[in-house]
Amino acid sequence: MHEFDVGARLRELRKSFGMSQRHLAESAGVPHGQISMIETNRSSPSVSSLRKILGGMGIGMSEFFEPDAQDSGQVFFTPGELRDLTSRIYSGAGQAQGRITLKQVGDARSHNLQILHETYDPGADTGETMLEHLASEGGIVISGEIELTVGKCRTILKAGDSYLFNSQEPHRFRNISDRPATVISACTPPYL
Known about the structure:
The structure is a single chain. By secondary structure, the chain is an alpha+beta fold. It has two domains: about 60 residues, 434 Repressor (Amino-terminal Domain); about 110 residues, Sandwich (Jelly Rolls). About 25% of the residues lie in helices and about 25% in strands. It has six helices and nine strands; from the N terminus they run αααααββαβββββββ. A six-stranded antiparallel β-sheet has the order 1-2-3-9-4-7. α2 crosses α3 and α2 packs across α4. The two termini are about 20 Å apart. This is XRE family transcriptional regulator. One of its GO terms (molecular function) is DNA binding. InterPro entries: Cro/C1-type_HTH, Cupin_2, Lambda_DNA-bd_dom_sf, RmlC-like_jellyroll, RmlC_Cupin_sf, TransReg_Diox_bact_type. Keywords: DNA-binding.
């Protein structure tokens, strides 16, 4: 599999929407320079930053990474058939924070339900910019520990613990432990 070019894909989409870098930055609420840095591959965006930028064009991560994906009507999925939504964002080299991998079950948009298998390496963080989106989400920690902040509430969830909240509340996921954490989550409507 060839390496996914985040910068080229963002530039292609921005131009297809007839937007300048400045217009996209204003629409997404990010600094103009951030768009330029990503498009020239001088910066790798965090999950929250990329999602925010894509929101400025009204698209999600799945559409960004797999624009031609069609719902095949598939009902059952092996681990190798899950859609990798974010591992291509982080090359692993030179990243200050740990890697986050989000794998989606099937076509979330056609079912209006996103089910994710999430893995957070030690130090992984969805970013200082808190996530906010129109949805409800919940999940169960399968292994390890994850720090979850929702609004002004913060806790450390361990294997077997779960969560459920309105995603319009600012939220952030971080693995502050020294071992990987695995979470199975669901979100409706789909966020990524």
